[in-house]
UniProtKB/TrEMBL annotation:
This is UPF0434 protein Ato02nite_074340. SUPFAM superfamilies: Trm112p-like. HAMAP family: UPF0434 (MF_01187). Pfam families: Trm112p. It comes from Paractinoplanes toevensis. Belongs to the UPF0434 family. Gene3D superfamilies: 2.20.25.10.
Length: 61
């Protein structure tokens, strides 16, 4: 099951800037367009916890 496009339209980074997220369906991740944090999608549920987000590596940035 894929994420609902309407849900993707309203999801935002949980950090104070609340920037939009880009979806990578193959990697099952959401990436913040401002800070670059990468949030995993587990069992079709976005995990938007700052403590569990990973920072982009040099090659991803």
């Amino acid at each position: 099951m894929a994420l609902d496009p309407q849900l993707l339209d309203i999801l935002a980074c949980p950090d104070t800037h609340h920037s939009p997220l880009t979806h990578d369906a193959d990697a099952q991740t959401l990436t913040c367009t401002e800070c670059g944090r990468i949030f995993e999608i587990r069992d079709d549920i976005p995990v938007l916890l700052l403590d569990e987000a990973r920072q982009p590596s040099a090659k991803e940035a």
